Amino acid sequence: MTDKKEKTVYVGITGDMIHPGIINIIQQGAKYGRLIVGLLSNTAIATHKRIPYLTYEQRKAVIENIKGVSEVVPQEEWSYVPNLEKLKPDYIIHGDDWKTNYLKGIREEVFEVMKKIGGEVIEIPYTKGINSSQLFENTTNNGITAVQRLKSLRQLMSYKPIIRIMEANSGLSGLIIENLKIEKEDGINRFDGIFINPFDSNPSEISSEHDSTDFTSKINTVTDILECTTKPIIYGGYTSDNYENITFTVEKLELMGISAMIIEDRYKNKNELCNEEEFCLKIKEGKKSQTNPDFMIIARIEELNLGKNIDDALKKSFASINAGADAILISSNQKTGDDIKEFCLKFRKENKNIPIVLIPTTYNQCTEKEFSEWGANIIIYSDYLKRVTYPAMKKCAETILKSERSLEVNEMCMPIKEILNLIPGTN
Question: For residues 354-379, b (16+ Cβ closer than 10 Å) or e, as one string?
């Protein structure tokens, strides 16, 4: 390690949780020369992991004051390559755990670019007993305040191109959404939030005669989900023409920490669209009732479902925005998704900022990447967990009847221990 002062060393970190493993990487890196920390931006982190607790500036202030750090620069992408090509460090240092986890692809990129610029990759043995992801999960198990949860949807939208939401209708389904993660080559996929459909809390409520304005009947379900999750929640399906009910629902949702409420473009108990003036009055009443600026009113536009054209849907969407809507949910039962694509592209020509929400149940051959290219921001996967529950329960019950014992259903069932592992405090 000659000419130490002339050598530069690069390390990329998130810096949201500082633990002995991070300190060890920094100390080891500083031995090789001038240590530059590439601090990942919130956007870079949010596309692959949970959003940080701390802002970028807060994390930067912490990292700058760690002994051995010479400089902190932003790393705007998950990939190290842009910063490495720009800074051309002599060394990059990283824990050797990336040989086997979801960062394997990133590791290969780093080796290629360092070879190209004449640098060296130094891999430090992983600090045993320290798992930053697990530390983060343990922290979330301690819960979240209503205000923190409420504002988290807007935070996510400011960092991620696509927000992935899954419907829950019970505490157990909420736990699945909260904890499920899939490792892929480019990072970890998770659901970003939860959708609660007021019609689908239990089978008795799946009826066109059910009044979605009766929020009091949903409180137990909503509370169950709130108690075992930390992700933002969107509450859907408000159809009432009773403005007092709108006020009550908004106030109650805000108090509970719900991030957003969908107001539907139709009368309750009728397959009939509201006229533009009435719909906008609902939205205005909802906005007038809210006290937290982070709470969102989402206007669900139904024109395409009931035979209207795209220009009609656009007209009502822009009227809704003028009335105060924070986002537009465009709905369609067309299976190709062509009308949704056309709507999104035309909408984006007129408005670059208002979020577009999609529920792609009928056009589910389209991908999240396509939706992002169209200009959509939030994708809600509705009904799926409920729809798979009935066939699974029916098959289990049929098997027991046929076998006259329960041994044959063992492989169908999740072990009780695994269920308990989902529940904070039961391990």
Answer: bbbbbbbeebeebebeebeebbbbbb
Is residue 31 within 8 A of residue 46, CB to CB? The reply is: no
Per-residue pLDDT of the chain (427 residues; tens, 9 = 90+): 444 457 999 999 998 888 888 898 999 999 999 999 999 998 888 877 777 878 899 999 999 999 999 999 999 998 999 999 999 999 999 988 888 777 888 899 999 999 999 999 999 887 665 555 555 555 555 568 999 999 999 999 988 889 999 999 998 899 999 988 887 776 778 999 999 987 654 544 444 444 444 566 678 889 999 988 999 999 986 666 667 788 888 999 999 999 999 998 876 656 678 888 989 999 999 999 999 999 999 999 999 988 899 999 999 999 999 999 999 999 999 999 999 999 999 999 999 999 999 999 999 999 999 999 999 999 999 989 888 988 999 999 999 999 999 999 998 988 877 777 766 555 5
* Contact in structure between 367 and 390 (CB atoms under 8 Å): no
Backbone angles phi, psi at 409, to 5 degrees: -95, 0
CATH assignment of the domain containing 98: 3.40.50.620
217 and 242 part of one domain = yes
Using DSSP, state whether 360 is helix, strand or coil: coil
pTM: 0.80
Range of the domain at 395: 387-422
- 55 and 176 in a single domain? The answer is no
Q: What is the DSSP string of 245-285?
A: HHHHHHHHHHHHT--EEEEESB-TTSS-BPPHHHHHHHHHH
94 beta partners: 123
d(CA 183, CA 217): 38
Integer Cα distance of 135 and 412 in angstroms: 32
What radius of gyration, in Å, describes the C-alpha atoms of the chain?
25
- Distance from C-alpha of 346 to C-alpha of 340, rounded to nearest angstrom: 10
Closest to 163 in 3D by CA, of 344, 14, 357 = 357
Residue 106 and residue 164 in one domain: no
Q: How far apart are the first and last CA of the chain?
A: 47
Q: Is 397 helix (H, G, I), strand (E, B) or coil?
A: helix
- Cβ neighbours, 10 Å, residue 241: 16
Residues 126 and 89 in one domain: yes
In a domain, 427, yes or no: no
